[in-house]
């Protein structure tokens, strides 16, 4: 009897083991098949952006903001003719410092992707909170290090950052290299003896998704000059709102450039990021991320500096692709499209398409003067 039981137990164990091996093998195969590529809700048809939205790269899952910043870092290296190694060092640094998230806090006065300190000569808070500027000054300081490209993993990054924890950078070079491989275009360039001629056209080829920021709202004739402030315009009194609004308005007439965050051109979300950075407030890049920034607001209490979202030419009510800033006086400033640039439009032209309004900082506004606008609250 005991011998029979033992035989049965062995047989059952063998069947279970065979099943587990089969399931495990299937799981490994399935994991291998989906280890890289768009995650649910990601990709250019999902949360989109210049980085291609949420995706798995090198076996690590990155959200849309993280891939957006990685694409920015790589595009600047490509534009400046830097070797791939520079981009790997930059991204490994940002993975350590901020996990590729544009943050407005850190040790002492550290800010932004690289946790650069204005008090240590990295630039103003406005500058280091803009990922474009922060990346360029990081590369400037990296290139000043003799032999930086041949240093062991993590050493060049620590030399730039002067971190209290130098051992953290090297282990992040592997995921950083995978991100760089995802976005790099053209040949791997040698270490330059002299600064290369900027190649913005090649840099734009880094971006994973085509331009998704067109406004999709006809530019209707009206009583305002879309590139000039109307007479008697009064900026908001709140300091943060005032700084953001005045920065955005100072960009009127500048070109729309997909993926740009200033100072010479902007896409719609890049203008919002740069404007709020000027007020010392960090917001993420990309409309899909910005639509969740700050707190919800409504047309009934819209305030200067609020971000206003509409589907745009390629978006939807749940996934808007275009954003502007309410500046007061019933006006929205936005980077309209590549043919038009940064302009002012009446908020009423957008009212029936608004999907989200987000309060980044400052007090509520006054009730909408136009009752129709108040009723159109999303």
TrEMBL record:
Keywords: Hydrolase, Membrane, Protease, Thiol protease, Transmembrane, Transmembrane helix. The chain crosses the membrane at residues 7-31. The keyword Membrane applies. It comes from the Bacteria. Signal peptide: none annotated. Residues 238-361 form the NlpC/P60 domain. InterPro entries: NLP_P60_dom, Papain-like_cys_pep_sf, PG_Endopeptidase_C40. PANTHER family: NLP_P60 DOMAIN-CONTAINING PROTEIN-RELATED, PEPTIDOGLYCAN DL-ENDOPEPTIDASE CWLO. Belongs to the peptidase C40 family. This is C40 family peptidase. It comes from Pseudonocardia nematodicida.
């Amino acid at each position: 009897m005991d011998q029979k039981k033992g035989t049965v137990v062995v047989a059952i164990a063998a069947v279970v083991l065979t099943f587990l091996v089969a399931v495990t093998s299937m799981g490994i195969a399935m994991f291998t098949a989906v280890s890289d590529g768009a995650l649910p809700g990601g990709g250019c048809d999902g949360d989109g952006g210049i980085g291609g939205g949420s995706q798995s790269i090198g076996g690590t899952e990155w959200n849309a903001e993280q891939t957006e910043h990685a694409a920015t870092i790589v595009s600047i290296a490509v534009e400046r003719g830097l070797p791939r190694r520079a981009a790997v060092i930059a991204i490994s640094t940002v993975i350590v410092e901020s996990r590729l998230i544009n943050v407005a806090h850190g040790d002492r006065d550290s800010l932004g992707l690289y946790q650069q300190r204005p008090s240590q000569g990295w630039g103003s808070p406005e500058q280091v909170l803009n990922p474009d500027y922060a990346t360029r000054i990081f590369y400037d300081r990296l290139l000043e290090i003799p032999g930086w490209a041949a240093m062991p993993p993590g050493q060049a990054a620590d030399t730039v950052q002067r971190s209290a924890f130098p051992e953290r950078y090297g282990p992040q070079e592997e995921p950083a290299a995978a991100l760089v491989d995802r976005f790099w275009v053209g040949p791997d360039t040698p270490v330059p003896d002299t600064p290369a001629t900027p190649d913005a056209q090649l840099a734009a080829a880094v971006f994973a998704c085509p331009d998704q920021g067109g406004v999709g709202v006809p530019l209707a004739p009206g009583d305002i000059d879309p590139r000039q402030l109307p007479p008697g315009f009064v900026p908001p009194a709140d300091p943060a709102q005032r700084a953001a609004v005045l920065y955005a308005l100072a960009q009127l007439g500048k070109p729309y450039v997909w993926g740009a965050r200033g100072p010479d051109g902007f896409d719609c979300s890049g203008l919002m990021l740069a404007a709020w950075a000027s007020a010392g407030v960090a917001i993420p890049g990309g409309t899909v991320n910005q639509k969740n920034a700050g707190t919800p607001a409504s047309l009934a209490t819209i305030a200067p500096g609020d971000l206003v979202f509409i589907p745009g030419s390629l978006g939807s009510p749940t996934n808007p692709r275009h954003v502007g800033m309410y500046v007061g006086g019933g006006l929205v400033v936005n980077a309209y499209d590549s043919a038009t640039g940064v302009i002012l439009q009446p908020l009423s032209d957008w009212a029936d398409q608004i999907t989200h309004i987000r309060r980044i900082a400052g007090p509520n506004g006054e009730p909408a003067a136009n009752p129709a606008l108040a009723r159109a609250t999303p």
